[in-house]
Amino acid sequence: MNSLIHSSLVTALARLLIFPGLLFAVPAAWFFLWVERKAVARMQGRIGPPFMQPFFDLVKLLGKSTPPRSGVSGAMMKAWPLIAVSAAAGAVGLLPVLPARGGFEGDLILLLALLEVPSMCMIAAGFSSRSIFGEIGSAREAVLSVSYNIVFLLAILSIAAAQHTLSLSALALLPPSLMRSLGIAAILICLPAKLHLNPFSLPNAEQEIYSGPLTEYAGPELALWELSHGLEWVAATGLVATLLAPPVAMWWVGALIFVAISFVIVLLLSIVAAATARLQIDTAVRFYWQCTLIFAVLAIASTLFARWRA
Amino acid sequence: MKLWDKLMCTCRRRSPWLFHLNTGSCNGCDIELVAAMTPRYDAEQLGVRLEGSPRHADILVVTGPVTHNSLEAIKTVYGQVYGPKAVVAIGSCPATTNVFIDSRTLDGPLNKHIPVDVFVPGCPPRPDAILQGVAKAAEILAARGNNLPVEPVVMPLVGPGCGGACACGNVTQSVESNAAESGAGHE
Amino acid sequence: MKILSMLWRNLWGGSRTLLFPARPKVSEHYRGLVCFDPTLCSGCAICKMRCTARAIEFKTGKGKFTWSYNPGQCTFCGRCVEGCKTHALHQDSACPPIYLTPGELSTSYTVARRPPAPRHVAAAVETVSKKDSGEAQ
Predict the structure, then answer these.
(1) Where are the alpha helices (H) located in chain A, listed in sequence order?
(2) pTM score, two decimals?
(3) pLDDT tens across A47-74, in order?
(4) Which of A80, A116, A164, C15 is the most buried (most CB within 10 A)?
(5) How many contacts does A have with B, using Cβ atoms within 8 A?
């Protein structure tokens, strides 16, 4: 019994810290951020940033001076990026890249909760910065978050309910089916809004609201926000990649397939980001409520119907 | 900590984030600044990002002669830029108020109010000149962050020049751009 | 879907970016820095009068004058070049360089005034008298 708990603790720590945890996720985040910027640049006919650019950005931000913050709202402003980074890192650590190792029943719910925390921290940060631009950006982010989250959660829950399981490892080992493909398509539609890409890049629109929720942040706190954004990329694309990846016997082949499928999803998102312009808030919200919600509702309804019939 | 200092110096030079401040400009220099972000000149190859908030930026890029109405804004925004920072004055207006020299609504050149590091002359300056100014400001920023001395400007001028036909002191050398040749197929 | 074909063409057509620090060539009649030729200048100071930005300064002294020019103040309009009667000014087709301290690019020339050219005296015209011309014939 003790050895069982001990080995699962070691496995959990390895998943959180080494693979697919921080040691793998932070360079992967830099790599995916660079791929997105370079792909968008090449598609716009220019050379993009050099390979190490996200790393340079992060280290430069660590070297800037910190603003003095006082009082409760100051302490809250310092806390939000820390919470966002730890939640995103935890979400990456929960991904079932190697389905046979670790994981527990119900970790799908934990993963979905951890994936929501960074955007909620950004909304809270915008309000606690007490600047008008932060408040407007946070309000827009909140409205968009409500809209795409309903579709996102309904899609994942419909896949899980169809298979009578709430464990990520079991979901990763599923054979391909129509229900699973529809659910994955719905998740892919929600990803640009989650990752603040065009056409849903309104919350951090420059030249409109001066960087939105993060207006008052600087230096190392901004570095933590950039890191949480990168880890969100890895977690979101990794979720779709683990659902799509076929199970293989050897662990390193599975890891390579995971990275390759994530890379393809990043390229797909870059094409969408380069080909579209920023939608206004009412158009973006209307897109999710009118166009995609009906399919998510149909998916969950057919799942429940199939379970009732079975 | 020498390795960390060198790393920080390189990172500050390779990742200059700009904030653009217009103090009453005619918008000619603003247009050329935005043109520097277009594919032909591509500021992103230097790691330059035009940021939305002055708190995110390292380099303050100022255009326009300094009007009375914008004085307070200039001082506020300069105070809002954190850490090692640099200021680039784009165009002849912030450097010397150019043609508006007798105007009642202006308050002198920019370096009366905030310390300016790089002046990019021109009316408006070409986008490649703006990029050179930003690159020099990034070097100054990196050296300032590590308290190193700043090297003088050694930049080749562009254009065929007079080839020494006149007796003036301007030394011009032509710089052929190889990339323009390779990119000429798109023209 | 035209945007997708545009993206595809951009992706495989190569970028049209000039790699820093390469700069594009300027056009033939590009109006750049003003160049001064002291041997041709007659010291009339029309350029100072016509300058829109007061970039040209002209000081007279005893038997000499000083012409100075600040490219940082100049707006490159070309009025001085147009107004110079002796073509002592022309605009170099080169962009002004960036500089770090104000007033760094100013140039000034002190030219000694040349003595005025000798007045053109009309040559003595020989009058041919009628008597001589009649006798010659």
Answers:
(1) 2-17, 22-43, 53-62, 71-94, 107-128, 132-162, 168-172, 178-194, 219-244, 251-275, 281-286, 293-309
(2) 0.84
(3) 889 999 999 999 999 988 887 888 888 8
(4) A80
(5) 90
